[in-house]
Write a structure and sequence with these properties.
The protein is of the alpha/beta class. It is built from ten helices and five strands; from the N terminus they run E-H-E-H-H-H-H-E-H-E-H-H-H-E-H. It has a five-stranded parallel β-sheet, with helices on both faces.
């Protein structure tokens, strides 16, 4: 199965790009949704997080308190690496299993932390959605209602723009109009269809 990994920094507009590929019949597998599944209540993934961080990371419903965990890992790089070492392997395995079952001409994996999580040698193409850092910060503050300081910390926890561009096979500049974005997606879709043949 021909597989494209879609990635980009936080608030770069990956969702807009993803929607446009899905509208063209491309089967999408979202790593963020998979990440939620592998640490849902009752999963071995959540049990490993509790073993590593203690039960204070759980909310009253027994699920992971995502807001508290996010604040904790963005303030402590060691904690973030510990959490990632639990979640990333579970997500990678699940994504590969699902990619093998895709029924569209090619599959698209939406992996925000593609560079950081590594070991995706089985992916055929990497598509990076790119915007300047300043744009990411503005969008993130507006979207999530957070401080610029937290937005900066969240960006610092991710691969840099340069690191993402270095591994890209294809790049979409998402600072242009929605019409230009549509045109870019259409051109790439045709390209991926031809490669998948």
């Amino acid at each position: 199965m021909f597989t494209v990994a879609l990635t980009g920094g936080i608030a770069s507009g990956k969702s807009e790009v993803e929607r446009r590929f899905a509208a063209r019949g491309v089967e999408i597998i979202d790593a963020d949704l998979v990440a939620r599944e592998v640490i849902a209540v009752g999963t071995p993934g959540l049990a490993r997080i509790v073993a590593a961080f203690g039960s204070t990371v759980l909310g009253p419903d027994g699920a992971l308190d995502r807001k508290a965990m996010r604040e904790r890992v963005f303030a402590d790089a060691d904690a973030r690496h510990r959490l990632e070492s639990i979640i990333h392997p579970l997500v990678r395995t699940t994504l590969q299993e699902r990619a093998a079952r895709v029924r569209s001409a090619y599959g698209m994996l939406v992996i925000p932390l593609f560079v950081e999580s590594g070991e995706y040698h089985w992916v055929d193409r990497v598509l990076v959605v790119d915007v300047p850092r300043e744009t990411q910060i503005q969008r993130l503050c507006a979207r999530d209602g957070i401080t610029e300081e937290l937005a900066e910390a969240m960006l610092a926890a991710q691969a840099s723009r340069e690191q993402r561009l270095a591994i890209a096979d294809d790049v979409i500049d998402n600072t242009t109009s929605l019409e230009a974005l549509d045109d870019n997606v259409e051109a790439l879709h045709r390209h991926y269809l031809s490669l998948a043949r």
